Amino acid sequence: MKKRIKKFLNNFDGLALFLDFTRTLFVYMIATCFALLLNQASVMNDNIFGVYMLGVALISFMTSGYIWGILASIGGVIGVNFFFTFPYFALNFTITGYPITFSIMLLMSVLVSALTAKVKKAAAISAAGKKRAETLNEMSTAMLTAVDVDTIIGMAADSFHAANQCSVVLYLGSPMEDIKHVVRVSNEIDEQVFSSILEKQVACRAFEECRPVGAEIENATRNCKGTYFPIATEEKKYGVVGLLFDDTKLLLEDTYSFINVMISQTILALEKQQANEKAQRILLETEKEKMRSNLLRAVSHDLRTPLTGIIGSTTTLLENGDEIGEEASRKMLTDIQHDAEWLIHMVENLLSVTRISGGTTTLKKQEEIIEEVVSEAVSRIRKRFPGSRINVEVPEEMLLVPMDATLIEQVLINLMENAIRHSGSPLPISLKVSKKKSGAVFTISDHGKGIDPSRIPDIFDGKPQKGSSDSTRGIGIGLSICKSIILAHDGKIFVKNNLDGGASFSFVLPMKGGKEYAQ
Amino acid sequence: MPNKIKVMIIEDEDAISNFIATTLKANTYAPLVAKTASEALSMIPSHCPDLVLLDLGLPDMDGIEILKKIREWSSIPVIVVSARGEESDKVEALDLGADDYICKPFGTSELLARIRTALRHSAKNNNGTPASEVFSTKGLTIDFGKRQVTVDGKEVHLTQIEFKIVSLLAKSAGRVLTYDFIITELWGPYAVKDNQILRVNMANIRRKLEKNPAFPEYIFTEVGIGYRMSDEP
């Protein structure tokens, strides 16, 4: 309610008019009194003009517009005639020479008031210009730090709102589809105005035709209250910004150009953002491409080796099975089994890769209870390595983490398998999950020989190890798959050597609010 | 030997059906092999197998369709064989009446264990004998009559709904029950098929029953499918 009264008063020009009138009258009366005093003291008559001139100058300075200065100078001429020329206290403009005197006085008063008004206007313009420059500066610095489109349009709307003292609506994309919009209003009524069908249609026209449309533009659309400017370059349309002024004052030319500058700023920020996103996407693509080619290289080597082993052993068994003896043939069969298991594992990894790099698909993320995923991964690894010892530790609290369970299971299996096969230590490995600020942290550590520090920086990049032998085949590819999976979950993966020996692989999965991973 | 248990293998890969048939023979079962769906559907009525091992990927018909056809007139136990990573297929098969599933690659011991469990359940159903009043596996004992659950002799307090879940799993011990099946059994057919409540309940049960929730002894999770109660003595 209070707000409404204030708005009403602001809008009511009568108040300002009344104030100006009072000021004029006050100064005029003082000037007259002073002149009367001077007249009584019989000081030179000529000074009376000077006193009125001073009054006119003061009035011009204190009031807005020319009108009060001119009125005061007319009043001054009348006053001199009335009070100080014969016949006293009566009006008589017919005395010889007086019309000229009065004309000169009128002209001078008008000039003085015109000059002061001009100076005042210039000061006001420069002040407004300074404020706008500041606003623009603030806007562009703020937008430099913006990280996503939402922030940018929010900031833009704030700037429009602050700089023009009006309600603002900013549509991203076509207003009719209304993909996204932000509103900054001075009161609730304006918000309703913006959401009306008529206003939206006008906004849509501005978007479609790529030119300003609305109440404040010459081709005013009937009944439309807001003014809509397209946010568009010649190549691309970004959206529309609509402004709703409290009073239906015509938009001043410089406000108009200022709005255009602000729109350009917004476009610049949006373009920059899009370029960034594109670069990010390309980076992601190259990352995936790299992984894929590494994978292919590894596949040709790593699949061929166990297959050669299997074929060799089976041929030997079939052809010379009777001669090589019970023990040797058992040994061969065990080797075949190992190789085949390894191949299955490899195929499962390959399946995971197709799942994350399958083009348009998004990860099937679901909230999973971590102990369920962990226990399945552990039981699968136990099936493959029956003799292995694994210490599992999960928090007492139930943790729900959004993830693609099959993929995270794959990561856990890969990391545990590496720890079992390559640590070179018979001590049990440990899998520990804990809750941290950054998310759920999974750590797999062993007590083995650790990792050569020179390999740590690019261990997840899938590069084949120098002098790699069959015993270490597949580590690189397994880890690079782990990295891709974790990255696809917006998580992080890292490795370090423990102080007391052995290596620790950890990865963090964000618990909530993780952005949907889409291509 | 008379009265050998007949197991029908529906599988198009010779290598796999060979290996399964050999294993089954070695374990005193009588294997029957069908390579295509049509062959299988004509063999089942004439041979009346005691159990069917069904591969979901067949050349002439979707395995799911065969399952539907079998279920139209018979309740013989069916174990579905499928590749990993096709959770939705497995869930569909289980919900359509398959008794269990087994993932490729599987070992012989796993296969034989699944066959034994499925046969035991079908025997129980056919004889019409009421399920025993007490279930026990390893250290866990459930007395359905007294509504009492003990772990290593110590009584564990479960809430109403937790007890219902545990006893439902125990009555089908060794078999995997899908999320949807459990929800329908507990909350009725019109309950929202949102497994979150069930999983939270299960997390609580696990904390009460298991020594280490991440390394369960009694109730196993089949991620994306459901739960299975251990049936080891």
Protein described:
The complex is a heterodimer of chains A (519) and B (233). By secondary structure, chain A is of the alpha+beta class. Chain A folds into three domains: 2-127, no CATH class; 146-251, Beta-Lactamase, CATH 3.30.450; 282-509, Heat Shock Protein 90 (2-Layer Sandwich). Chain A has 13 helices and twelve strands. In chain A, the strands form three sheets. A five-stranded antiparallel β-sheet of chain A has the order 2-1-5-4-3, sandwiched between helices. In chain A, strands 7-9-10-12-11 form a five-stranded mixed β-sheet. In chain A, a hairpin with a 2-residue loop joins strand 9 and strand 10. The radius of gyration of chain A is 42 Å and the shape is rod-shaped. Chain B is α/β, with parallel strands linked by helices. Chain B folds into two domains: 5-127, Rossmann fold (3-Layer(aba) Sandwich), CATH 3.40.50; 134-229, Arc Repressor Mutant, subunit A. Helices cover 42% and strands 23% of the residues of chain B. Chain B has helices at residues 14-26, 37-47, 63-73, 87-95, 108-127, 160-171, 179-187, 196-209, and strands at 5-10, 29-34, 51-55, 78-83, 100-104, 134-137, 140-143, 148-151, 154-156, 176-178, 219-222, 226-229. In chain B, helix 6 packs across helix 8 (196-209). Chain B is globular, with a radius of gyration of 18 Å. In chain B, 33% of the residues are buried. Chain A binds chain B through residues 340-341, 344, 348, 351, 367-369, 371-376, 378-379, 383, 392-394, 396, 398, 405-406, 409, 431, 433, and chain B through 84-85, 87, 105, 107, 196, 199-200, 202-204, 206-207, 212-216, 220-224.
